[in-house]
Every structure is written in structure tokens, then in C-alpha cells.
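To: structure subgroup
Subject: Chain for Friday's discussion

All,

I'm putting the inputs and outputs inline so they're searchable in the archive.
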Amino acid sequence: MTVPTKHTATRAGDPLSIFREQLEIAADRAQRGCGLSDALFVERINAEVTGMMEKLPDELRGAAAEIAYEFGYDDGEEEPYHEPGTCFLTGIAEHCCPCGRHP
């Protein structure tokens, strides 16, 4: 697989710049096929970020998490809020939600 040229230019750069570039690609991947569901996007981006963070040195993980928050990463520390009438799983209005858990 060929890596796009714009992403190879900073491979020798600092690890957080590389992390940001990888995160941009991961966010694009996570958005595809999520059906505009915020919950599904967060689930997908969290999976991507978790794998990426494991490869970083411990001293960079805090700064990397701050960058990841900009892209929708959720470390689960905040209690999720859903409007009344929306699906807790998908965040979509219950009458439009495809999860099958609503009457």
C-alpha cells in the first residue's frame, strides 16, 4: 500500500505531529459508515485511538489524549448525555433509530 506524500513529509518529525496526522486519517475512517450516529463514531474513534496510544511512550499519552479529544475521542470519564426521546445506544431519535430496541 502506498502512503500519500503529504503524510510521509513529517515522518521524521515529532511523535505528536505524526499522531495528529494518523488521527486525521483515523477520524475519516471512523466517520465512514457510522450513519451520522455520534455514538457509533465515538466507539470507532475510541478503538482507533486506543490502538494508537498504546504505541506512544507514557510521557506523551496525556498530550496525545488532548489532541484526540479535538477529534471526538471520549475516554469515558464524563457521563454521556442524551436528549429525551433519543436512543442511548446511537443518540438518534427513537422513532428513527435502526437499533431495534424501541417500540
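Points worth raising on Friday:
The first helix runs from residue 5 to 8.
The helical segments are 5-8, 15-31, 38-54, 58-70.

D.
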